[in-house]
Design a protein that fits this description.
Length: about 700
C-alpha cells in the first residue's frame, strides 16, 4: 500500500497555487449508509461480546455487495468534491513516468531483470545472454489482462535454461497459478497448476517441487481457512492431477509446507511453519530414491534457513542462541544443533541476508534500521565491506553460486533505486544503471532521531524534509509505522513522497518495537502481552514531532497498512487528540476473530488469540480497534482502505470497523471507507490503481488539514 501523503501541492507543471486556509471549501456533513445490526453475541471466559456486524464477514452475499456499493458512493462523492484531487493525480502521473529497473540476476546462463518503461501497469521481465547481448522479453505480465490486475508473483528458470516456471496472481489475491513456458519458442505449455499459495517453484531434473492446497468450496475462495497443504513434485508433460505428493502432514493440518532444492541438487530442503516466527527444518537426499527424511529441527521456536550445501556439510542462518542471527554449519551425520559450529557468530547488528558467491559470503547487516554489506570467506573471516552511496536499503546479490560478478540495487528516501555491479574478488563497485528523474534530490535531507517511549525505551525514527524548512508546527506531516512480525522498515524511495517533500511536507517513519530492526528481542517486545509497547512507541513518536515543532495535531496524519492498519486503529482510539487524519489500510481490526480466516492463525505468534486464556482475551479485547471505538470522542478524519480480493487480511476487518465508527462517532470529521475492486493486500497492484489510490490518500489528507489549493 502507498504510505506517503501529499502536502502543499505547488507544482507549477500542473498549474497549482497554494491559497490561504480560510478559502478552503467546506463540505456538508456526510450521510452514511445505515448498516444493519444483528444479535450475534460471543462468550469469552464469561464475558459476552456483541458482534452486530457479523453478517459483513460474508463478502460474497448480495447484502454485503450492496453495502459496499453504498459505502463507495459516499466515499467517492466526498473525494470528487475536493477541487485539487485531479491535479494531484495528474502530478503523480507526471512524476511516475520514468523507467524503473530491478537488479539483474544470472540464471542458467541468462541475465534476467525486470523493467517498467514508466506507466506500464506491470514490470516486464527481459533476458540477455550477456551484458552486451540482445534484450529479449522473458515474460510480459501486461499481456495477461487488459487492466493490469493479473500480476507476475514469482518465477524460476530451470537448471538447463530451457524453461520458465512462473506464478501469477489475479486481482491481488494470495492464490497463485503456476504456468510453464519454453523460453526459446515463447510457448506456454499445458502444465497449469491452481490453488497454490505461499509456494515457490523449485526445479529438479525435468520437473519441479511446489506446495498446494485442495480446491476450496465455492464461496470460500477468499475467506475460507487454508489447511492440509501438500508438497508435490510435477514432471513436465505429465497430467498435473498426477503430481507426486512428496510430503504431507495430515496430523497437523494447519502447518504450512514449503521446500527448495540445494544448488547441487543433492538435497530437498523442507520448511514447516505454524506461525510467522519459527520453523521446523527437514532434509531429504535426492541422490537416494528411498531416502528417509532427516528431521534436523522439529520444534518451531526459532528460524532456520539453509544457505549452502557441499558434500554433506550444510551452512544455516539462524536466530537460535543468537537473537540478532548467526551463520553456523553442521554435517548431515551429526545434525543435532548442539553439534553446530559458528561460521559467523552473532554480532552487534542484525544479520539480515546471506548470498554465497565465488567462495565468499556476501552478508547484509542492519544497523540502526539501515543496511550495511560485508564480505567474508567461507570460514567466516571478514575480508571487506561493500561501498554504498549513503544510508539506505540494499537488495540483490543474486545469481549462481560460482558467479564472480553480481548486481545489487540501492535506494533511500531521496535516492531513487539504482543498480550497481559488484566484482566480488576485486571488491569493486560500479554504477550499472540509474533512473532519469527531473527532481533535484540535493535539496532534501534525512535525519535519524531517537526519542523516549513511555517505558523509557529509546526508539529510532527517520525524518525527511526539504533543507531549511521552518519548524513552526505548521508542516503537514505523515507519520508511518508498522511494528510487527519481525518486519523491518529501512529507508526506501517513494515517488508519492517526493510530491510531499517538494511542497514542504514532512515524512516521518518510526521503527516501532515488534519489528526486526534490532533482532528477536526487539520483535518480541512488541508481541502478545507486550503489544501495547508498539502503540506507546507510535504515540511517543507523534508527541516528539509535535513537541519539536515539526508539526501539530491539526497537521499530523498517521498511516499504516496490514499490521500497520491495526496500529492506526489502536492509536486513533487511544489518542485521537494527536492526529488530524488517520488512514488504516487493509488493517487487522477484529483482534478476537482474526485467526478464523484464511491464514490468520499464523499471526498468533505475534498477537495471541482470544481463545488462549482469559488474560490473553482481556488484553486483546482491551485494544482491538473494532471493540474500542468510543462515543463522544473527537476522532480524526478517517479513511479506511481495503480491497475486495484481499485474502490475507479479509475486508471484513475494515467493513466492521468502519460500521462501528460511523455508528458511534458524532463529530464533524468524515469517517469513510474506500473499497477497491479487483485488488488485494497490495502485492501486484497495477500502476494505474497505485496512482489512483495515492491521489485519493493525498487529497483526503490535504483537505482535512484545512489546506486550500486552487487551479490557475
Amino acid at each position: 500500500m502507498t504510505s506517503n501523503l501529499i502536502n502543499k501541492i505547488t507544482c507549477l507543471a500542473i498549474g497549482i497555487a497554494l491559497m490561504s486556509c480560510n478559502n478552503t471549501p467546506k463540505m456538508e456533513k456526510l450521510n452514511y449508509p445505515v448498516t444493519k445490526k444483528v444479535d450475534t453475541v460471543d462468550n469469552y471466559f464469561n464475558t459476552e461480546v456483541a458482534d452486530p456486524y457479523r453478517w459483513l464477514e460474508d463478502d460474497m452475499s448480495q447484502e454485503t455487495k450492496e453495502w459496499v456499493i453504498a459505502q463507495n458512493e459516499v466515499t467517492q462523492s466526498l473525494l470528487s468534491k475536493i477541487p485539487y484531487r485531479k491535479a494531484i493525480e495528474d502530478r503523480l502521473t507526471q512524476i511516475w513516468d520514468y523507467t524503473k529497473m530491478g537488479a539483474p540476476v544470472n540464471r542458467s546462463g541468462l541475465i534476467v531483470y525486470g523493467k517498467n518503461d514508466g506507466l506500464q501497469n506491470q514490470a516486464v521481465y527481459y533476458y540477455k545472454t550477456s551484458e552486451e547481448g540482445e534484450e529479449k522479453v522473458l515474460i510480459d505480465p501486461n499481456k495477461l489482462s487488459e487492466d493490469g490486475t493479473v500480476a507476475l508473483s514469482s518465477f524460476s528458470i530451470s537448471k538447463d535454461g530451457k524453461y520458465l516456471g512462473y506464478t501469477i496472481s489475479r486481482s491481488g489475491s494470495d492464490w497463485r497459478e503456476i504456468f510453464v513456458k519454453e523460453i526459446a519458442s515463447d510457448k506456454v505449455l499445458d502444465d497449469h497448476i491452481e490453488w497454490v499459495k505461499f509456494s515457490g517453484i523449485s526445479w529438479y531434473k525435468d520437473g519441479f517441487f511446489f506446495s498446494r492446497f485442495d480446491e476450496p468450496k465455492e464461496g470460500d475462495e477468499l475467506k475460507g481457512v487454508n489447511k492440509n497443504p501438500k508438497l508435490c513434485y510435477h514432471k513436465l508433460g505429465d497430467d498435473v492431477a498426477d503430481a507426486e505428493v512428496v510430503y504431507e502432514d495430515p496430523a497437523n493440518p494447519e502447518r504450512l509446507i514449503n521446500a527448495g532444492v540445494t544448488d547441487d541438487e543433492a538435497y530437498l530442503v523442507i520448511h514447516l511453519t505454524e506461525s510467522t516466527s519459527g520453523n521446523a527444518l527437514y532434509l531429504k537426499s535426492l541422490n537416494e530414491k528411498e531416502a528417509e527424511i532427516v528431521k534436523v529441527i522439529e520444534d518451531f521456536e526459532y528460524d532456520y534457513s539453509i544457505i549452502d550445501h557441499a558434500n554433506g556439510e550444510f551452512m544455516v542462518k539462524t536466530n537460535y542462541n543468537a537473537p540478532k542471527e548467526r551463520i553456523a554449519k553442521f554435517s548431515i551425520d551429526t545434525y543435532k544443533k548442539e553439534n553446530w559450529e559458528d561460521v559467523i557468530p552473532e554480532g552487534k547488528d542484525v544479520l539480515s541476508t546471506v548470498s554465497v558467491k565465488s567462495d565468499k559470503l556476501i552478508v547484509q547487516y542492519m544497523t540502526d534500521a539501515h543496511d550495511v554489506v560485508k564480505v567474508f570467506d567461507l570460514n567466516g573471516k571478514h575480508l571487506y565491506n561493500v561501498d554504498l552511496p549513503s544510508i539506505g536499503s540494499v537488495g540483490g546479490f543474486g545469481g549462481e553460486k560460482e558467479d564472480e560478478v553480481t548486481y545489487f540495487s540501492f535506494n533511500s528516501f531521496v535516492y531513487p533505486s539504482a543498480i550497481y555491479k559488484y566484482n566480488i574478488a576485486k571488491n569493486t563497485t560500479e554504477l550499472y544503471w540509474k533512473p532519469e528523474i527531473d527532481i533535484d534530490f540535493d535539496q532534501y535531507e534525512t535525519k535519524q532521531v531517537f526519542f523516549t517511549s513511555k517505558d523509557g525505551t529509546k526508539v529510532p525514527m527517520f525524518i525527511v524534509h526539504k533543507k531549511g524548512i521552518s519548524l513552526d508546527g505548521n508542516n503537514p506531516t505523515m507519520l508511518y509505522g508498522y511494528g510487527g512480525f519481525n518486519i523491518s522498515l529501512t529507508p526506501t524511495f517513494s515517488l508519492s513522497r517526493m510530491v510531499l517533500l517538494e511542497n514542504d511536507g514532512i515524512y516521518a517513519m518510526v521503527n516501532l518495537r515488534g519489528g526486526g530492526e534490532y533482532g528477536k528481542e526487539w520483535h518480541e517486545a512488541g508481541t502478545k502481552l507486550q503489544k501495547q509497547n508498539v502503540f506507546d512507541d507510535c504515540i511517543a513518536a507523534a508527541e516528539y514531532l509535535i513537541d519539536n515543532k515539526y508539526t501539530s495535531p491539526e497537521k499530523l496524519a498517521v498511516h499504516g497498512g496490514s499490521n500497520g492498519g491495526l496500529l492506526v486503529g489502536a492509536v486513533s482510539n487511544q489518542r485521537p487528540d494527536l492526529f488530524k487524519v488517520a488512514i488504516p489500510a487493509v488493517g487487522v481490526m477484529d483482534m478476537l476473530r482474526y485467526h478464523k480466516f484464511t491464514i490468520g492463525r499464523f499471526w498468533a505468534a505475534d498477537y495471541g488469540t482470544s481463545e488462549d486464556d482469559k488474560e490473553m482475551f482481556d488484553y486483546l479485547y482491551g485494544y482491538s480497534p473494532i471493540h474500542n471505538v468510543k462515543e463522544n470522542l473527537d476522532y480524526p478524519a478517517v479513511m479506511v482502505m481495503t480491497a475486495d480480493h484481499d485474502d490475507r487480511v479479509v475486508p471484513a476487518h475494515s467493513f466492521k470497523y468502519i460500521a462501528e465508527l460511523q455508528d458511534k462517532y458524532n463529530g464533524n470529521n468524515p469517517v469513510i471507507i474506500r473499497i477497491e475492486s479487483k485488488a488485494g493486500h497490495g502485492a501486484g497492484k497495477p500502476t494505474s490503481k497505485q496512482i489512483e489510490s495515492a491521489a485519493d490518500i493525498y487529497s483526503f489528507m490535504f483537505y482535512n488539514m484545512n489546506e486550500s489549493i486552487s487551479y490557475n
